[in-house]
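Suppose a colleague, Dr. K., hands you the sequence of a protein chain of 494 amino acids and asks what its three-dimensional shape might be. Before reaching for any lab equipment, you can write down a predicted structure in token form. Begin with the sequence itself:
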Amino acid sequence: MSPLLLPSVLLFVGAAHAFQYTELAQYVDDHEEEYVETLRDWVAIESDSSNIERRPDLHRMMEVVAQKLQLMGGTVQLVDIGNQELSDGRTVALPKVATAQFGSDPSKYTVCVYGHVDVQPAKLEDGWATDPYNLTDINGNLYGRGASDNKAPVLAWIHAVEAYQALNMELPVNVKFVIEGMEETGSNGLDSMIVAQRDTFFSDVDYIIISDCGWRSRRPALTYGTRGNCYFFAEVEGPKQDLHSGVYGGTVVEPMTDLVGILDTLINPGGKILIPGIREAVAPLSDDEWRMYQDIEFDMDDYKKKIGVSQLMYTNKVDLLAHMWRYPTVSIHGIHGAFSDSGTKTVIPAKVTAKFSIRQVPNMDPAMVKTQVTDYLHSVFAKRKSPNKLKVTMVIGAKPWLANTQHPLYEAGKAAVKRVFNMDPDLIREGGTIPIARTFQDVTGKSIIMMPIGGFDDGLHSQNEKMSRYNYIEGTKLFIAYLNEVSQIKKTSV
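The predicted structure, expressed as tokens, is then:
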């Protein structure tokens, strides 16, 4: 029986001299304009996964990705992941997932790079200074929807492989790609595909790399955790139809009053979640974590200025970062059924639905959170003695993800950042949710690292999203260096 091979934090140093980083980095610099033009072509495709009218553009986007990988000589497939059922009963095809493989040397590690090429909605009239689908270069920043999230990082990985090929250098590891087109709406169909290909496409994968995130400051970062997301609808239904407030006001118990009343019991003004059991489930902050947060480069004044507020919830860096990354939060997103247009319509809505979410963290469980929230709101509602009806539904239950920063993947990441940027990276967590990370972890059992190249001020999901030329080009070099560092993780027999 052959011994089990496990990675250790030791790195090979004997082969380090063979890595021709200078030549590869020069190649990237020489092809900067070509890379920008490719990004321009990709941004021009309005691959908005939330707009069913743009579905043909999304299909075309996936074909462009597959063609790019095929022209590089990869073994490429467009994997059919089925159909999507719309709220009106129609069924439409989901965009296929592009998979590719470069190299199949069994003596090398195999890394799998995940990315997505769908985008959030964007319109010029939303407040963009430029056409969101025409990449615009202003002072070294490339403005366009999807530039940072996630088209430039996907292209940077592709260009990293291309650079090795162009210089006739052997890839230090085998590289696989999984690129999807539905991430912004929940990665419909992708979980099933990963399960279906666990013993085929993913069987020889050693490590998984995700670059769908960003730095926290101007210092490069490695990401080792994300929060989950439990998203709820709370519906209060009363009269059989909307009523005139002048005629019926004062005679009925209004659903909106009930709804606002129960929403006010979710969280206090200081940010404390009031739902029993939520805070008690959170993993305690360790001394090591506290020290890590203390060392992270983060300017609270810049942060306030960026988001346009005069005061934050917490007054010191560690507390703020901890509550951004590793404590749960409640956010109320909107109320459906309420009058929200301009004007002064005097209506009592017959049915209103609040949309709110709880960003969950280790050691919270979505099924338990669902029970806690549902039971709590019904108990609060019962105390109001209202004749109206309450219905609570959890529509998303995405789990958090957390990695071990002592894993060799992160040691290799530190070495790559040091080589390219001549500094140590910040080790950070994400306050948002990237559900696919937990899916990869649970289904494949592989180790995962998140290696962002997006800037802290890229404006993801917002107006005037951008990717700086610096991050795009130096990020490509980082990926080149990282492939080499991963190749030198030592395999030790135990």
